[in-house]
């Protein structure tokens, strides 16, 4: 499973005012010792709910004074090489009798009607899957067109029978957990199997996206503990939604609104979204995290988080608020190498590249000469100016080395500045955020691109990405 930055997606608090309890009894006579595990599907792996020693009669009992959340669970047998899936729904007293000679056909789950449907479904699908695979192999090895047509027809017929079986199960037992799971797993149909034009492809995309969640209700906690919900959620946000902050925020708010009546679904969604966008893959998506903080976390709508987690989220949000794409960049009260005040807003240019760097940073030593080279070769002629900021823990001690690097690498065309000790002390006394917070400077070099009005166009790009972006902007301007 993906290791989230905060690990929020693994946090769930289950309490009950009544004396509810669960008991899951495993009977596996083939084992007379060892440890068995009661696990549940969450995301892409199994998570451990409880463990129990196996008696000399092959019995392990898992029990607790709480109600297990509904979902797909699994008993992992001693040795961890075999496991048996079963469902937990409303019924909480369940016995699973296991025969390892045929886990699928001979395992019997009692105490839960939901598992009767599950076992019937598993056996039917297993039988159909064998027939489908046989027809697939026969089709690929066909030597005549007639054979190919025959096996293709058989395959399509068996596949339709399987789909019809699923649909009929859902119609016959619409409120069952199996119906909920089958609906959630069902992929939307394709509008046009063979798109001929770009417009056909667009129609397919919009239709698929519109119907992607048809089988899922965000008001049902049961689908959280399944192996397919998290991958489905990840695919939607990472592949189907336009990767712009506004589009993501609109979708997230809508789903969270739907989930407000289902506490565990709401927790799962908010935790996952927070983890996903606290350190996003694409520039500008940090606005999603800031939105989540302002609308949910800062309003006390994530009360299950502990103090340390809330502190981490809050600190990160405040680091990002001042440097979102499209926002006015904070002015920097800096001093140049001669002692003259040269704040950021005193620089007049069509574009300003702000570079926070450290002369002792190995990566800075590699990148700055390349930045300066492309600046001299191209950017300078387009009225771009370089605003280089000394970013080191001990700026006064670093000043001689900073000046030496500027001189040796001929960065005289840059506006080279640093924050004096007096300016830093004044900001601290006035409780003003420092440049590191204002510009989220946690690594060096950190590069920002500002427009003529000092609005943030881009941030934390490599020099190659920055050059590509500027080339596109100049080309658009000339057309």
How would you briefly describe this protein structure?
The chain is an alpha+beta fold and 479 residues long. Helix content is 44%, strand content 16%.
Tell me what the structure shows.
The chain is an alpha+beta fold and 479 residues long. The chain folds into 4 domains: 8-111, Sandwich (Immunoglobulin-like); 117-185; 198-321; 335-478, Glutaredoxin. The protein is built from 15 helices and 14 strands. The strands form 3 sheets. Strands 9-12-11-10-13-14 form a 6-stranded mixed beta sheet. The chain has a 4-stranded mixed beta sheet with strand order 4-1-7-8. Strands 3-2-5-6 form a 4-stranded antiparallel beta sheet. Helix 11 (362-377) links the parallel strand 10 and strand 11. Helix 2 (113-140) runs antiparallel to helix 3 and helix 7 (245-259) runs antiparallel to helix 8. It is elongated and about 85 Å long.
């Amino acid at each position: 499973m993906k290791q989230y930055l905060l690990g929020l997606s693994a946090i769930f608090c289950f309490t009950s005012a009544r004396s509810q309890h669960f008991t899951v009894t495993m009977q596996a006579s083939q084992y007379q010792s060892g440890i068995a595990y009661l696990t549940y599907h969450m995301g892409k792996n199994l998570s451990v709910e409880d463990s129990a020693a196996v008696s000399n009669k092959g019995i392990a009992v898992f029990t607790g004074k709480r109600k297990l959340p509904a979902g797909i669970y699994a008993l992992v047998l001693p040795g961890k090489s075999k496991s048996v899936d079963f469902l937990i729904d409303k019924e909480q007293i369940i016995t699973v009798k296991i025969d390892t000679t045929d886990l699928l056909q001979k395992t019997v789950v009692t105490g839960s009607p939901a598992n009767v449907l599950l076992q019937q479904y598993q056996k039917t699908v297993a039988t159909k899957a064998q027939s489908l695979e046989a027809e697939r192999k026969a089709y690929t090895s066909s030597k005549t067109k007639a054979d190919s047509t025959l096996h293709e027809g058989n395959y399509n017929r068996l596949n339709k029978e399987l789909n019809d079986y699923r649909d009929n199960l859902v119609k016959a037992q619409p409120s069952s957990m199996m119906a909920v799971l089958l609906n959630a797993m069902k992929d939307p149909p394709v509008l046009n199997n063979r798109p001929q034009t770009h417009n056909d492809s667009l129609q397919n995309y919009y239709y698929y996206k519109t119907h992607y969640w048809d089988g899922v209700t965000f008001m049902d906690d049961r689908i959280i503990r399944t192996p397919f919900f998290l991958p489905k959620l990840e695919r939607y946000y990472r592949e189907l939604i336009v990767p712009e902050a506004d589009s993501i925020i609109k979708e997230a708010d809508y789903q969270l609104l739907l989930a407000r009546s289902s506490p565990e679904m709401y927790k799962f969604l908010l935790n996952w979204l927070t983890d996903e966008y606290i350190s996003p893959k694409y520039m500008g998506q940090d606005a999603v995290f800031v939105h989540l903080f302002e609308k949910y976390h800062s309003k006390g709508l994530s009360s299950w988080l502990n103090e340390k987690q809330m502190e981490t989220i809050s600190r990160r949000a405040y680091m990002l608020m001042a440097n979102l794409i499209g926002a006015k960049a904070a002015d920097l009260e800096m001093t140049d190498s001669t002692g003259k005040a040269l704040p950021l807003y005193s620089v007049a240019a069509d574009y300003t590249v702000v570079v926070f760097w450290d002369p002792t940073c190995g990566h800075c030593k590699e990148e700055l000469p390349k930045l300066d080279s492309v600046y001299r070769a191209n950017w300078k002629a387009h009225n771009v100016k370089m605003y280089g900021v000394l970013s080191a823990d001990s700026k006064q001690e670093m000043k001689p080395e900073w000046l030496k690097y500027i001189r040796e690498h001929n960065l005289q065309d840059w506006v080279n500045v640093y924050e004096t000790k007096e300016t830093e002390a004044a900001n601290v006394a006035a409780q003003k955020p420092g440049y590191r917070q204002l510009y989220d400077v946690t690594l060096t070099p950190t590069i920002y691109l500002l427009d003529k009005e000092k609005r943030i166009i881009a941030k934390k790009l490599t020099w190659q990405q920055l050059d590509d972006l500027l080339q596109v902007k100049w080309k658009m301007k000339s057309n």
